Amino acid sequence: MDSVIVIGGGLAGVEAAWQAAREGARVRLYEMRPVRQTPAHRTDRLAEIVCSNSLKSDEQGTAPYLLKEELRRAGSLVMEAAQETRVPAGAALAVDRQKFADYITRKIEGHPLIEIVREEVTHVPDEEVTIVATGPLTSEALTVEIIRLTGDEHLYFYDAIAPIVAADSVDKRIAFRAARYGKGGDDYLNCPFDEEQYQRFYEALIEAKSVPLQKFEETRWFEACLPIEELARRGRDTLRFGPMKPVGLIDPRTGEQPYAAVQLRQEDLMADAYGLVGFQNHLRYGEQARVLRTIPGMEQAEFLQYGQIHRNTYICAPRLLRATMQMRSRQHLFFAGQITGVEGYVESVAMGWLAGVNAARLVRGIELIEAPQKSAMGALARYVSGARTDNYQPVNITFALLEPLDASLRKRVRRKRERHQLQVELALKEWDTWLQQLNLAGSKGAATAR
Predict the structure, then answer these.
(1) Would you say residue 444 lies in a domain?
(2) Element (H or E) spanning 116, and its range?
(3) Of the four listed, 25, 130, 271, 372, which is most buried by Cβ atoms within 10 Å?
(4) Domain region containing 65
(5) Is-contact 312 158, C-beta < 8 A?
Protein backbone atom coordinates (compact mmCIF):
# COMPACT_ATOMS: atom_id res chain seq x y z
CA MET A 1 0.00 0.00 0.00
CA ASP A 2 1.58 3.29 -1.12
CA SER A 3 -1.03 5.72 0.23
CA VAL A 4 -0.97 8.14 3.17
CA ILE A 5 -4.02 9.52 4.95
CA VAL A 6 -3.79 13.06 6.30
CA ILE A 7 -6.53 14.21 8.68
CA GLY A 8 -6.84 18.01 8.77
CA GLY A 9 -6.47 20.66 6.08
CA GLY A 10 -4.76 23.35 8.13
CA LEU A 11 -1.18 24.53 7.73
CA ALA A 12 0.40 21.36 9.09
CA GLY A 13 -1.97 19.10 7.17
CA VAL A 14 -1.46 20.69 3.75
CA GLU A 15 2.31 20.72 4.26
CA ALA A 16 2.30 17.06 5.30
CA ALA A 17 0.15 16.13 2.29
CA TRP A 18 2.34 18.09 -0.11
CA GLN A 19 5.59 16.59 1.16
CA ALA A 20 4.21 13.05 1.18
CA ALA A 21 3.11 13.52 -2.44
CA ARG A 22 6.50 14.96 -3.39
CA GLU A 23 8.01 11.78 -2.02
CA GLY A 24 5.81 9.71 -4.33
CA ALA A 25 2.99 8.64 -2.00
CA ARG A 26 -0.66 8.91 -2.91
CA VAL A 27 -2.46 11.08 -0.38
CA ARG A 28 -6.04 11.33 0.84
CA LEU A 29 -6.43 14.64 2.66
CA TYR A 30 -9.51 14.80 4.91
CA GLU A 31 -10.97 18.20 5.79
CA MET A 32 -14.32 18.37 7.59
CA ARG A 33 -15.18 21.91 6.46
CA PRO A 34 -17.69 22.86 5.06
CA VAL A 35 -19.58 19.70 6.13
CA ARG A 36 -18.81 20.69 9.70
CA GLN A 37 -17.46 24.09 10.67
CA THR A 38 -15.31 25.08 13.65
CA PRO A 39 -15.96 27.96 16.06
CA ALA A 40 -13.20 30.06 14.44
CA HIS A 41 -13.11 29.27 10.70
CA ARG A 42 -15.19 31.20 8.17
CA THR A 43 -14.60 29.42 4.84
CA ASP A 44 -14.01 25.98 3.36
CA ARG A 45 -10.51 26.92 2.11
CA LEU A 46 -7.53 24.80 3.07
CA ALA A 47 -4.92 26.47 5.30
CA GLU A 48 -7.36 29.18 6.42
CA ILE A 49 -5.62 31.40 8.96
CA VAL A 50 -7.95 32.31 11.82
CA CYS A 51 -5.67 34.19 14.23
CA SER A 52 -2.97 36.72 13.31
CA ASN A 53 -1.93 36.99 9.66
CA SER A 54 1.72 37.25 10.74
CA LEU A 55 4.14 34.35 10.49
CA LYS A 56 6.43 36.30 12.83
CA SER A 57 9.94 37.64 12.27
CA ASP A 58 11.78 37.05 9.03
CA GLU A 59 14.80 39.05 10.13
CA GLN A 60 18.08 37.28 9.39
CA GLY A 61 19.89 36.03 12.46
CA THR A 62 16.72 35.20 14.40
CA ALA A 63 15.40 31.77 15.34
CA PRO A 64 12.05 32.29 13.51
CA TYR A 65 13.98 33.26 10.36
CA LEU A 66 16.09 30.11 10.62
CA LEU A 67 13.00 27.89 10.75
CA LYS A 68 11.42 29.67 7.77
CA GLU A 69 14.64 29.46 5.77
CA GLU A 70 14.98 25.73 6.46
CA LEU A 71 11.46 25.21 5.14
CA ARG A 72 12.02 27.42 2.11
CA ARG A 73 15.14 25.46 1.17
CA ALA A 74 13.24 22.20 1.66
CA GLY A 75 10.45 23.05 -0.79
CA SER A 76 7.71 24.02 1.67
CA LEU A 77 4.37 24.71 0.02
CA VAL A 78 3.26 26.99 2.86
CA MET A 79 6.39 29.12 2.66
CA GLU A 80 5.97 29.37 -1.12
CA ALA A 81 2.39 30.56 -0.60
CA ALA A 82 3.50 33.06 2.05
CA GLN A 83 6.03 34.60 -0.33
CA GLU A 84 3.45 34.87 -3.11
CA THR A 85 0.80 36.52 -0.90
CA ARG A 86 3.05 38.62 1.36
CA VAL A 87 1.85 42.00 2.66
CA PRO A 88 3.99 44.77 4.20
CA ALA A 89 4.79 44.06 7.86
CA GLY A 90 8.23 45.43 8.60
CA ALA A 91 10.66 42.68 9.59
CA ALA A 92 7.80 40.18 9.97
CA LEU A 93 6.37 37.86 7.32
CA ALA A 94 2.64 38.55 7.05
CA VAL A 95 0.18 37.38 4.41
CA ASP A 96 -3.12 38.28 2.80
CA ARG A 97 -5.02 35.49 4.52
CA GLN A 98 -7.65 35.01 1.78
CA LYS A 99 -5.14 34.92 -1.10
CA PHE A 100 -2.88 32.68 0.99
CA ALA A 101 -5.64 30.10 1.54
CA ASP A 102 -6.75 30.33 -2.09
CA TYR A 103 -3.19 29.76 -3.33
CA ILE A 104 -2.68 26.65 -1.20
CA THR A 105 -6.13 25.26 -2.01
CA ARG A 106 -5.45 25.58 -5.76
CA LYS A 107 -2.07 23.88 -5.43
CA ILE A 108 -3.43 20.97 -3.39
CA GLU A 109 -6.47 20.53 -5.66
CA GLY A 110 -4.18 20.49 -8.70
CA HIS A 111 -1.70 17.91 -7.43
CA PRO A 112 -2.16 14.58 -9.27
CA LEU A 113 -1.32 12.48 -6.21
CA ILE A 114 -3.57 14.26 -3.69
CA GLU A 115 -7.30 13.60 -3.24
CA ILE A 116 -9.28 15.96 -0.98
CA VAL A 117 -12.11 14.30 0.96
CA ARG A 118 -14.63 16.67 2.56
CA GLU A 119 -15.95 14.77 5.57
CA GLU A 120 -15.40 14.57 9.31
CA VAL A 121 -13.13 11.76 10.48
CA THR A 122 -14.19 10.19 13.76
CA HIS A 123 -12.09 7.01 13.61
CA VAL A 124 -8.35 6.78 12.90
CA PRO A 125 -7.55 3.77 10.66
CA ASP A 126 -5.97 0.85 12.49
CA GLU A 127 -3.47 -0.11 9.78
CA GLU A 128 -3.17 2.58 7.08
CA VAL A 129 -0.34 5.08 7.43
CA THR A 130 -2.05 8.16 8.86
CA ILE A 131 -1.06 11.67 9.92
CA VAL A 132 -3.31 13.41 12.45
CA ALA A 133 -2.91 17.14 11.82
CA THR A 134 -6.24 18.42 13.10
CA GLY A 135 -4.75 21.38 14.87
CA PRO A 136 -6.06 23.27 17.87
CA LEU A 137 -9.71 22.96 16.82
CA THR A 138 -9.99 19.18 16.73
CA SER A 139 -13.65 18.10 16.69
CA GLU A 140 -15.13 16.56 19.83
CA ALA A 141 -15.63 13.16 18.18
CA LEU A 142 -12.05 12.97 16.95
CA THR A 143 -10.78 14.22 20.31
CA VAL A 144 -12.46 11.22 21.94
CA GLU A 145 -10.76 8.97 19.38
CA ILE A 146 -7.36 10.56 20.10
CA ILE A 147 -7.88 9.97 23.82
CA ARG A 148 -8.55 6.31 23.01
CA LEU A 149 -5.35 6.07 20.95
CA THR A 150 -3.12 7.91 23.38
CA GLY A 151 -4.55 6.29 26.49
CA ASP A 152 -4.75 9.52 28.44
CA GLU A 153 -6.77 12.67 28.86
CA HIS A 154 -5.95 15.32 26.27
CA LEU A 155 -4.32 18.57 27.29
CA TYR A 156 -5.51 21.99 26.31
CA PHE A 157 -5.00 25.71 26.62
CA TYR A 158 -7.07 28.69 25.59
CA ASP A 159 -6.12 30.99 22.74
CA ALA A 160 -7.66 34.25 21.60
CA ILE A 161 -7.97 36.04 18.25
CA ALA A 162 -7.20 39.73 17.71
CA PRO A 163 -9.74 42.14 16.18
CA ILE A 164 -9.53 43.62 12.66
CA VAL A 165 -10.73 47.08 11.66
CA ALA A 166 -11.47 48.79 8.34
CA ALA A 167 -8.46 50.87 7.30
CA ASP A 168 -10.53 53.90 6.31
CA SER A 169 -12.14 54.03 9.77
CA VAL A 170 -8.78 54.82 11.45
CA ASP A 171 -8.08 58.54 11.83
CA LYS A 172 -4.82 59.14 9.93
CA ARG A 173 -4.53 62.61 11.45
CA ILE A 174 -3.67 60.83 14.71
CA ALA A 175 -2.36 57.39 13.66
CA PHE A 176 1.03 57.58 11.97
CA ARG A 177 3.00 55.16 9.82
CA ALA A 178 6.23 53.71 11.22
CA ALA A 179 7.87 50.49 12.37
CA ARG A 180 9.70 50.21 15.67
CA TYR A 181 13.31 51.35 15.20
CA GLY A 182 12.57 51.88 11.49
CA LYS A 183 12.65 48.14 10.74
CA GLY A 184 10.62 47.68 7.58
CA GLY A 185 10.01 51.37 6.94
CA ASP A 186 6.43 52.57 7.51
CA ASP A 187 4.55 49.30 7.28
CA TYR A 188 2.55 49.72 10.53
CA LEU A 189 -0.09 52.22 11.62
CA ASN A 190 0.57 53.46 15.16
CA CYS A 191 -2.02 54.92 17.51
CA PRO A 192 -0.15 56.99 20.15
CA PHE A 193 -1.22 57.57 23.77
CA ASP A 194 -0.26 60.21 26.27
CA GLU A 195 -0.35 59.21 29.95
CA GLU A 196 -3.90 60.44 30.55
CA GLN A 197 -5.25 58.65 27.47
CA TYR A 198 -3.51 55.44 28.51
CA GLN A 199 -5.03 55.64 32.00
CA ARG A 200 -8.54 56.00 30.53
CA PHE A 201 -7.97 53.04 28.22
CA TYR A 202 -6.54 50.91 31.04
CA GLU A 203 -9.46 51.62 33.36
CA ALA A 204 -11.99 50.84 30.60
CA LEU A 205 -10.23 47.56 29.84
CA ILE A 206 -10.05 46.45 33.48
CA GLU A 207 -13.76 47.15 33.96
CA ALA A 208 -14.89 45.46 30.71
CA LYS A 209 -16.90 42.24 30.81
CA SER A 210 -15.42 39.09 29.27
CA VAL A 211 -17.16 36.16 27.61
CA PRO A 212 -17.74 33.58 30.39
CA LEU A 213 -15.83 30.30 30.20
CA GLN A 214 -18.44 28.15 31.93
CA LYS A 215 -17.92 25.05 29.81
CA PHE A 216 -14.51 24.09 31.17
CA GLU A 217 -13.16 23.37 34.62
CA GLU A 218 -10.21 25.74 34.68
CA THR A 219 -8.72 28.49 32.55
CA ARG A 220 -5.26 27.76 31.14
CA TRP A 221 -3.70 30.35 28.86
CA PHE A 222 -0.70 29.98 26.58
CA GLU A 223 1.69 32.57 28.05
CA ALA A 224 2.90 33.84 24.66
CA CYS A 225 -0.66 34.70 23.56
CA LEU A 226 -2.38 36.11 26.64
CA PRO A 227 -5.51 38.24 26.10
CA ILE A 228 -4.92 41.94 26.73
CA GLU A 229 -7.34 41.99 29.66
CA GLU A 230 -5.40 39.17 31.33
CA LEU A 231 -2.16 41.10 30.82
CA ALA A 232 -3.74 44.27 32.18
CA ARG A 233 -4.70 42.51 35.41
CA ARG A 234 -1.00 41.87 36.08
CA GLY A 235 -0.36 45.58 36.55
CA ARG A 236 -1.00 49.01 35.10
CA ASP A 237 2.19 49.11 33.03
CA THR A 238 2.23 45.50 31.81
CA LEU A 239 0.72 46.47 28.45
CA ARG A 240 3.16 49.39 28.06
CA PHE A 241 6.04 46.93 28.28
CA GLY A 242 4.24 44.36 26.12
CA PRO A 243 2.05 44.80 23.03
CA MET A 244 1.72 48.57 23.60
CA LYS A 245 5.41 49.35 24.05
CA PRO A 246 6.26 52.64 22.31
CA VAL A 247 10.02 52.13 22.04
CA GLY A 248 11.50 52.98 18.67
CA LEU A 249 8.47 55.09 17.65
CA ILE A 250 8.32 58.87 17.25
CA ASP A 251 4.98 60.65 16.98
CA PRO A 252 5.39 63.18 14.12
CA ARG A 253 2.90 65.55 15.80
CA THR A 254 5.07 65.93 18.91
CA GLY A 255 8.52 64.79 17.76
CA GLU A 256 8.65 62.57 20.84
CA GLN A 257 8.10 58.94 21.83
CA PRO A 258 4.49 58.40 22.96
CA TYR A 259 3.64 57.09 26.41
CA ALA A 260 2.20 53.94 24.82
CA ALA A 261 1.13 52.85 21.33
CA VAL A 262 -1.12 50.35 19.60
CA GLN A 263 0.23 49.00 16.31
CA LEU A 264 -2.02 47.98 13.42
CA ARG A 265 -0.72 45.60 10.74
CA GLN A 266 -2.00 45.36 7.16
CA GLU A 267 -4.23 42.30 6.67
CA ASP A 268 -4.60 42.11 2.88
CA LEU A 269 -2.96 43.22 -0.36
CA MET A 270 -5.66 45.88 -0.90
CA ALA A 271 -4.63 47.49 2.43
CA ASP A 272 -8.27 47.99 3.37
CA ALA A 273 -8.12 46.01 6.64
CA TYR A 274 -5.75 46.24 9.61
CA GLY A 275 -5.33 43.90 12.58
CA LEU A 276 -4.49 45.14 16.09
CA VAL A 277 -1.10 43.60 16.84
CA GLY A 278 -1.01 41.64 20.10
CA PHE A 279 -4.60 42.63 20.96
CA GLN A 280 -6.14 39.18 21.20
CA ASN A 281 -8.94 39.23 23.74
CA HIS A 282 -12.13 37.52 24.89
CA LEU A 283 -14.27 40.52 25.77
CA ARG A 284 -17.93 40.67 24.83
CA TYR A 285 -18.33 42.26 21.39
CA GLY A 286 -20.08 45.36 22.70
CA GLU A 287 -17.39 45.80 25.32
CA GLN A 288 -14.65 45.42 22.71
CA ALA A 289 -16.14 48.21 20.61
CA ARG A 290 -16.45 50.47 23.67
CA VAL A 291 -12.94 49.84 25.00
CA LEU A 292 -11.05 49.80 21.72
CA ARG A 293 -12.68 53.03 20.55
CA THR A 294 -10.90 54.77 23.44
CA ILE A 295 -7.65 54.20 21.50
CA PRO A 296 -6.56 57.53 19.94
CA GLY A 297 -7.34 57.44 16.24
CA MET A 298 -9.86 54.61 16.59
CA GLU A 299 -12.81 56.58 17.96
CA GLN A 300 -14.84 55.74 14.82
CA ALA A 301 -13.36 52.29 14.20
CA GLU A 302 -15.40 49.87 12.07
CA PHE A 303 -14.75 46.31 13.23
CA LEU A 304 -14.50 43.70 10.49
CA GLN A 305 -13.71 41.00 13.05
CA TYR A 306 -14.00 41.07 16.81
CA GLY A 307 -11.62 39.24 19.10
CA GLN A 308 -12.66 35.70 19.96
CA ILE A 309 -11.61 32.85 22.21
CA HIS A 310 -11.21 29.20 21.34
CA ARG A 311 -9.85 26.10 23.00
CA ASN A 312 -6.68 24.50 21.62
CA THR A 313 -6.15 20.75 21.95
CA TYR A 314 -2.72 19.13 22.12
CA ILE A 315 -1.32 15.78 23.22
CA CYS A 316 1.47 14.98 25.69
CA ALA A 317 3.83 14.36 22.79
CA PRO A 318 7.04 13.49 24.73
CA ARG A 319 5.29 10.47 26.16
CA LEU A 320 3.81 9.45 22.82
CA LEU A 321 5.97 10.51 19.87
CA ARG A 322 9.41 9.89 18.42
CA ALA A 323 11.42 12.72 16.86
CA THR A 324 10.13 11.46 13.51
CA MET A 325 6.58 12.49 14.59
CA GLN A 326 5.74 8.77 14.61
CA MET A 327 3.77 7.39 17.55
CA ARG A 328 5.91 5.10 19.69
CA SER A 329 3.24 2.44 20.19
CA ARG A 330 1.52 2.65 16.78
CA GLN A 331 4.13 2.86 14.06
CA HIS A 332 1.62 3.59 11.28
CA LEU A 333 0.37 6.72 13.07
CA PHE A 334 1.96 10.19 12.96
CA PHE A 335 0.96 13.50 14.53
CA ALA A 336 1.77 16.94 13.13
CA GLY A 337 1.23 20.60 13.87
CA GLN A 338 -0.11 22.31 16.99
CA ILE A 339 -1.67 19.11 18.30
CA THR A 340 1.91 17.94 19.04
CA GLY A 341 2.54 20.88 21.35
CA VAL A 342 4.31 23.36 19.11
CA GLU A 343 2.90 26.87 19.04
CA GLY A 344 2.89 29.05 15.95
CA TYR A 345 2.09 28.75 12.27
CA VAL A 346 5.60 28.04 11.02
CA GLU A 347 6.36 25.65 13.88
CA SER A 348 3.23 23.70 12.92
CA VAL A 349 4.28 23.67 9.27
CA ALA A 350 7.70 22.30 10.24
CA MET A 351 6.17 19.35 12.09
CA GLY A 352 3.87 18.79 9.12
CA TRP A 353 6.86 18.76 6.75
CA LEU A 354 8.65 16.17 8.90
CA ALA A 355 5.58 13.97 9.35
CA GLY A 356 4.75 14.10 5.64
CA VAL A 357 8.22 13.08 4.51
CA ASN A 358 8.42 10.29 7.07
CA ALA A 359 4.94 8.92 6.37
CA ALA A 360 5.84 8.63 2.68
CA ARG A 361 9.13 6.95 3.54
CA LEU A 362 7.30 4.47 5.75
CA VAL A 363 4.92 3.37 2.97
CA ARG A 364 7.87 3.08 0.58
CA GLY A 365 9.88 0.99 3.05
CA ILE A 366 12.65 3.59 3.48
CA GLU A 367 14.33 4.45 6.77
CA LEU A 368 12.67 7.38 8.54
CA ILE A 369 14.62 10.59 9.12
CA GLU A 370 15.26 12.94 12.02
CA ALA A 371 16.04 16.59 11.37
CA PRO A 372 19.68 17.68 11.91
CA GLN A 373 20.88 18.46 15.43
CA LYS A 374 21.70 22.13 14.80
CA SER A 375 18.52 22.90 12.84
CA ALA A 376 15.45 24.70 14.15
CA MET A 377 13.25 21.85 12.94
CA GLY A 378 15.48 19.40 14.79
CA ALA A 379 15.21 21.51 17.95
CA LEU A 380 11.42 21.49 17.81
CA ALA A 381 11.29 17.74 17.13
CA ARG A 382 13.62 17.11 20.10
CA TYR A 383 11.38 19.19 22.34
CA VAL A 384 8.20 17.49 21.16
CA SER A 385 9.66 14.03 21.64
CA GLY A 386 11.87 14.57 24.67
CA ALA A 387 10.64 17.39 26.92
CA ARG A 388 9.65 16.79 30.53
CA THR A 389 6.13 15.43 30.70
CA ASP A 390 5.13 16.70 34.15
CA ASN A 391 4.47 20.23 32.87
CA TYR A 392 4.52 19.94 29.08
CA GLN A 393 3.68 23.30 27.50
CA PRO A 394 3.39 24.46 23.87
CA VAL A 395 6.52 26.19 22.60
CA ASN A 396 7.64 28.56 19.85
CA ILE A 397 11.05 28.29 18.22
CA THR A 398 13.70 30.19 20.20
CA PHE A 399 17.47 30.09 20.51
CA ALA A 400 16.94 28.47 23.91
CA LEU A 401 15.77 25.33 22.07
CA LEU A 402 18.65 25.31 19.58
CA GLU A 403 21.86 23.38 20.14
CA PRO A 404 24.33 25.91 21.63
CA LEU A 405 27.67 26.79 20.08
CA ASP A 406 30.60 24.80 21.40
CA ALA A 407 32.71 26.38 24.16
CA SER A 408 35.54 27.53 21.88
CA LEU A 409 33.14 29.45 19.60
CA ARG A 410 31.34 30.99 22.56
CA LYS A 411 34.64 32.31 23.87
CA ARG A 412 35.56 33.75 20.49
CA VAL A 413 32.17 35.35 19.80
CA ARG A 414 31.13 37.40 22.82
CA ARG A 415 28.15 39.40 21.59
CA LYS A 416 24.80 37.62 21.71
CA ARG A 417 23.65 38.94 18.32
CA GLU A 418 26.83 37.70 16.62
CA ARG A 419 26.55 34.32 18.36
CA HIS A 420 22.98 33.97 17.14
CA GLN A 421 24.01 34.89 13.61
CA LEU A 422 26.74 32.26 13.72
CA GLN A 423 24.27 29.65 15.02
CA VAL A 424 21.99 30.39 12.08
CA GLU A 425 24.84 30.15 9.56
CA LEU A 426 26.09 26.83 10.96
CA ALA A 427 22.57 25.41 11.16
CA LEU A 428 21.82 26.29 7.53
CA LYS A 429 25.13 24.82 6.37
CA GLU A 430 24.29 21.55 8.11
CA TRP A 431 20.72 21.73 6.78
CA ASP A 432 21.82 22.15 3.16
CA THR A 433 24.22 19.21 3.41
CA TRP A 434 21.47 17.06 4.95
CA LEU A 435 18.97 17.94 2.23
CA GLN A 436 21.48 17.12 -0.50
CA GLN A 437 22.32 13.78 1.07
CA LEU A 438 18.64 12.85 1.26
CA ASN A 439 17.74 14.40 -2.11
CA LEU A 440 15.15 16.55 -0.37
CA ALA A 441 16.15 19.97 -1.71
CA GLY A 442 13.41 22.36 -2.76
CA SER A 443 14.33 22.04 -6.44
CA LYS A 444 12.85 18.55 -6.58
CA GLY A 445 9.83 18.38 -8.90
CA ALA A 446 6.82 18.92 -6.68
CA ALA A 447 4.41 16.86 -8.73
CA THR A 448 6.76 14.05 -9.64
CA ALA A 449 5.56 10.58 -8.73
CA ARG A 450 8.05 7.80 -8.38
Answers:
(1) no
(2) strand 114-117
(3) 25
(4) 3-154+315-438
(5) yes
